[in-house]
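Milestone 3.1: sequence recovery, worked example.
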C-alpha cells in the first residue's frame, strides 16, 4: 500500500469519526431542547429573571452545539470527498422549533 493510499484511509477514518461525533452532538442538542422545554414548563409561573436567564442559556447552548455539529459534518464531507469515498450527502437540516 502506498503512502498516498494510507493517507486516504486515514482521512476517511477521520471523516467517519467527525460524522459520528456530529450525530452525537445533534442528539445532545435534542436533549438540551427537551431540558429547556421541561424547565420552561416548571418555571412558567415564575417571573424571575434568573429563570429566564437559565432558559436562554439552554437555548444558546443548543444553538452553539448545532453550529459545531454542522461544522463537523462539513469537515466529514470534505474528508470523504478528498479521500474518494462515496457517501450520502451530509447536511444538517433544522426544523422550526416550538418554544
Amino acid at each position: 500500500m502506498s503512502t498516498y493510499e494510507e493517507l486516504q484511509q486515514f482521512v476517511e477514518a477521520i471523516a467517519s469519526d467527525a460524522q459520528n461525533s456530529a450525530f452525537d452532538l445533534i442528539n445532545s442538542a435534542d436533549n438540551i431542547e427537551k431540558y429547556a422545554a421541561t424547565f420552561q414548563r416548571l418555571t412558567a409561573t415564575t417571573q424571575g429573571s434568573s429563570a429566564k436567564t437559565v432558559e436562554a442559556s439552554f437555548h444558546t447552548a443548543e444553538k452553539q452545539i448545532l453550529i459545531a455539529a454542522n461544522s463537523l459534518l462539513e469537515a466529514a464531507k470534505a474528508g470523504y470527498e478528498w479521500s474518494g469515498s462515496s457517501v450520502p450527502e451530509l447536511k444538517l437540516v433544522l426544523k422550526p422549533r416550538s418554544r
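Residues 3-83 form one domain. The chain has one domain: 3-83.
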